[in-house]
């Protein structure tokens, strides 16, 4: 029970927090997908009033539908253009979602001006709420989904209260086309909105968990190579915008194979865990640490290569002086690493180019005695 409560708390706090940069990137891709879908749906929506007219529907109702569909098409094209510049408009999913929900409410309110029961019993327009809430699952941001659900509940709830309050008589809420508006059916609709929001929120939560799992090294808990591959393009873009340099340090433990032979696999695992904790605790904001394979790590620093060398060399000295426990009660021991540096954009404009360059310098550090940091070939 306690575990379930903790689980629920964790889910709610994850859904309410700002996603990390990787999730925001995933969400921005989802926003573009939604914008494309919305543009297609908007185009198809133009057919509905036509079908209504051909099917013998009321002309005034069809004209309202047509006007709504045209406005929706224009807005859909604007959102599509903005979502192509995905990283610049982090507020876009909130605004587009609020606009989608509000559009549904406005269309229902317009229907009410013509025929009160149409506002509360029209199924097709009301389903727009469900679509808008469902589409937030593609934005991968719990705050957007909860905003959509909350807005739909408040707006539709208010609309229902107003329509029922302004009806001149109970007969005004009875329609041969739309059926009778009852309080029960309106409550059912509100409950359905809550259920749709919960389902979309669960999809967002699972997506966030899966993305996090795929970007995390299970042994150390550090970000892994996949994370680095997705994070670096954003760091490059920010560095370009801000006109600053980035340095990538490829860090490799020295003689780790020998340590494995001497103290065994589990002792070496434990030593590596402590090494990672120590290194991780030393990283500041503007520095990102990832495990790329075995005993190899990448530290990205928002610094030019010279300053980055001083920083990584200082870390090397501190780590070298740190006494690591090999096993419970065992002799303390020292771990050393070698590192090769490469700077963006000078040494390369992609992660693979920087890793290649940093690896050449790492090999030089190994050749020339280990326990050193190399920033250029000798
Ligand atoms: N215990 C343990 N060993 C690992 C882990 N990952 C990699 N290794 C071992 O680390 C060793 C890395 O070897 P190398 O990098 O080739 O060489 P090295 O002994 O570290 O020597 P240099 O890198 O040349 O200084 C290998 O024996 C791997 O099996 C791990 O997670 N745990």
Write a structural description:
With 378 residues, this protein is an alpha+beta fold. The protein has 2 domains: 2-214, no CATH class; 225-374, Alpha-Beta Plaits, CATH 3.30.70. The chain has helices at residues 2-16, 21-45, 47-54, 59-84, 92-114, 116-121, 123-135, 142-166, 183-214, 225-242, 256-282, 305-321, 351-367, and strands at residues 174-175, 179-180, 246-253, 287-293, 296-301, 324-325, 332-333, 337-344, 373-374. The strands form 3 sheets. It has a 5-stranded mixed beta sheet. Strands 1-2 form a two-stranded antiparallel sheet. α5 runs antiparallel to α7 (123-135) and α7 (123-135) packs antiparallel against α8. The longest helix has 32 residues, at 183-214. Residues 1-5 have low confidence and may be disordered. The chain binds guanosine-5'-triphosphate. Guanosine-5'-triphosphate (GTP) binds at residues 219, 252-258, 260, 265, 268-269, 272, 294-295, 366, 370. Guanosine-5'-triphosphate is lined by residues 219, 252-258, 260, 265, 268-269, 272, 294-295, 366, 370.
